[in-house]
Here is the input.
Amino acid sequence: MNILDRYKIDLRQLPCEGLTYRFELSDSFFEAIEATLVKSGNVIVDLRVNETAGTFMFDFKIEGVVQVPCDRCLDNVNVTIRTENELKVKLGDSFVDDGDMVVVEEDDAELNVAWYIYEFIALQIPLVHVHKDGQCNEEMINALKQHLVNVSQDVDGEAETTEKVEGVTDPRWNELKKILDNN
Ligand SMILES: [Zn+2]
Here is the structure.
């Protein structure tokens, strides 16, 4: 069984008074979802599903800590997640997700909320995510700086080579050529 299967919500089984789910996300969740930004974390998701007049309200309460690579040193940096999100779901002929409302095929009457949970978490990640001052991996930063220095030295090296090639036409070379020609 795929570990993401447990995030399927069966809308037909929903009792009148609604239902509460609790998901405990760990690294395996983020590995299974194969997203690029968040690769690990520990997050608790409390989901409440209620139905009113054919509309299912999904209320997510999401709290925890996830890790993303630091923009400066590339080591993992912790980001605290605390968010509440809402999803409206209806049954219909075919699957539609227009951002405000998700329509689930009536024959399935099932919605997997794994990707929605991931997106709610990813939306909480700030655009710039770096360690606090002094907490970056200095070794890694130095290695990155060294790499940049090497790259710029290579460029200088090429410039020197070009000068030497141009130097071939200098008068001393012509004198040498005369001597060689005479022999
Ligand atoms: Zn860092």
